[in-house]
Design brief:
With 497 residues, this protein is of the alpha/beta class. Helix content is 49%, strand content 6%. The chain has 3 domains: 2-114, HUPs (Rossmann fold), CATH 3.40.50; 123-190 and 216-310, Serine Threonine Protein Phosphatase 5, Tetratricopeptide repeat (Alpha Horseshoe), CATH 1.25.40; 315-494, Orthogonal Bundle (DNA Cyclobutane Dipyrimidine Photolyase, subunit A, domain 3), CATH 1.10.579. The strands form 2 sheets. The protein has a 5-stranded parallel sheet with strand order 3-2-1-4-5. A two-stranded antiparallel sheet has the order 6-7. It is globular.
């Protein structure tokens, strides 16, 4: 009998090596690796989400009639070898893993790989699209995706007459005290209790609040959250998707990425649900387009770039950044209100939305010169939707400009003015976003100008930074700003800022 090996981010019945297979035709192998679980500082909810989802999926397959060999072993390799020694399968098949190293491991073990179909654009199709293009712009890829998939199209033209409504989706935080839809929360059960106990025993370095049911660990639960988002949240999504509120952690974000990333949802059904709501007149075009762009545009673009540029991409560090991770990223203890709020939110839920990741965490890491690999590792293990394919392009290319502009046309660096505009944090913060120097100067503002000065040789040829570099050169207090920046960078390391 053949074996189908199901990895922890491939939890879908009708895809990959399980597609079209009936009980009795194959045996299913699933492996929990102690080496992976115990490898460093994972968020408890991140571990819980994956382990509980795997165990529940195994139970679903058993209830369908499949023979499931579910193993807790020192490593993935050990689990594979133990399974083969006991069951002597004729062959072992698996869907191609979501990571470069995972694929290399399965290939080294002689596992027969079938194409990964958890995306609408395969790595091979993306590579063909990329071809010999001199630049790989996400907007170009996104429009190509819209056309070939016939999503939000009216014949050959985009629905509503425009490809992109991003300009309408950048409003600052609302000040009307509105109520945002509450998330679905599941009651914990015996499976959750066992997972919590296992994490305490097997992952001594884990951090963060324990699992509380806000994240679904079954396909049924994921579908419930998809339907709630489309019905109640998507109509509100667009205008404030870049806003940050201290009193509301999710606003109108979908929170569906974890389910897409491990297979509990497929991007096709997510996009179809959003498009159907738009077609019925239930969702404005700016909200529908903005959300769909995240799914078929950005998410699949990142996936394609990961496979196009690996394995060398993970080692890039074009700005030669070498500072350690700010201590506040692991303690949450800082007088920077936006950073403290963001890190504490991660501690509580293993999640914050894209602007907090990019313009608070990524921005601070970029302007203070944190080593890219340290940021990738921390985000990968901290976020509920973390994965190497997600974090490498988003951190190396988008947040830290460590690839020298292969992915992003300019560094996403900003001072405190952006955070002041798009959040409500600055009003109650010790630091003033308008000040560059002095004890109460906003670290983001100080570091922004120092970043431009420190990296001017590498950035001066970037035409998109001409105005910013020109303004930096005109600063009469630049020497004092750079002196203050040395202190700020030191205090980020020792946690005294």
């Amino acid at each position: 009998m053949d074996t189908v090996w199901i990895l922890g981010d491939q939890l879908r019945r009708d895809t990959g090596a399980l597609a079209g297979v009936r009980p009795g035709e194959v045996r299913v192998l699933m492996v929990e690796s102690d080496a992976k679980i115990g490898s460093g500082r994972w968020h408890r909810q991140r571990l819980h989400f994956v382990l509980a989802s795997m165990r529940r999926f195994a139970d679903e397959l058993r209830s369908e009639g499949f023979a499931v060999d579910y193993r807790h072993t020192p490593s993935m390799r050990a689990g594979f070898r133990a399974h083969c020694a006991e069951h002597t399968p004729d062959r072992v098949r698996a869907m191609s893993p979501m990571s470069f190293d995972g694929r290399a491991l399965l290939e080294s073990l002689g596992v027969e790989l079938v194409a990964n179909d958890q995306f609408l654009c395969s790595a091979a199709t993306f590579a063909a699209w990329a071809g010999d293009r001199s630049t790989l712009k996400m907007e170009d890829f996104y429009r190509w995706q819209r056309q070939r998939l016939n999503i939000l199209m009216e014949g050959k033209k985009p629905a509503g007459g425009a490809w992109n409504y991003d300009a309408e989706n950048r409003e600052p935080p609302p000040k009307d005290g509105r109520s945002w839809p509450a998330p679905i929360i599941d009651q914990l059960d015996a499976t959750d209790a066992r997972v919590i106990a296992d994490i305490a025993r097997r992952a001594p370095g884990a951090f963060g609040a324990s699992f509380d049911g806000v994240w679904a660990t079954t396909r049924t639960g994921a579908l419930q959250r998809l339907h709630q988002f489309v019905d109640d949240v998507l109509p509100l999504f667009g205008p404030h998707e870049d806003a940050v509120l201290s009193t509301e952690w999710k606003l109108a974000h979908s929170m569906l990425s974890p389910y897409l990333n491990i297979g509990l949802l497929h991007p096709r059904e997510v996009v179809d649900a959003a498009q159907e709501a738009f077609n019925k007149g239930l969702v404005p075009i700016a909200s529908a387009e903005g959300f769909i762009r995240q799914v078929i545009g950005w998410r699949e673009y990142v996936w394609g770039l990961y496979w196009l540029w690996m394995p060398d991409y993970r080692g890039l560090n074009s700005l030669e950044a070498d500072a350690p991770l700010p201590l506040a990223f692991t303690t949450g203890e800082t007088h920077m209100a936006c950073v403290a709020h963001t890190v504490n939110a991660i501690d509580e839920r293993s999640w914050v939305h894209h602007i907090e990741r990019l313009m608070i965490l990524g921005n601070l890491s970029l302007t203070s010169g944190v080593r890219p690999g340290a940021v990738v590792e921390w985000m990968w293990k901290s976020f509920i939707d973390g994965a190497e394919w997600v974090m490498l392009p988003n951190v190396i290319g988008m947040a830290l400009y460590a690839d020298g502009g292969r992915m992003s046309t300019k560094p996403y660096a900003s001072g405190g003015a952006y955070i002041n505009k798009m959040s409500d944090h600055c009003g109650n913060c010790r630091y003033d976003p308008k000040k560059r120097i002095g004890e109460h100067a906003c670290p983001f503002t100080t570091l922004y100008w120092d970043f431009l000065a420190r990296n001017e040789p590498a950035l001066r040829s970037n035409h998109r930074l001409g105005n910013q570099l020109g303004s930096m050169r005109k600063l009469k207090d630049l020497d004092a700003v750079r002196e203050r920046a040395v202190e700020v960078r030191s205090r980020l390391v020792d946690g005294s800022l």
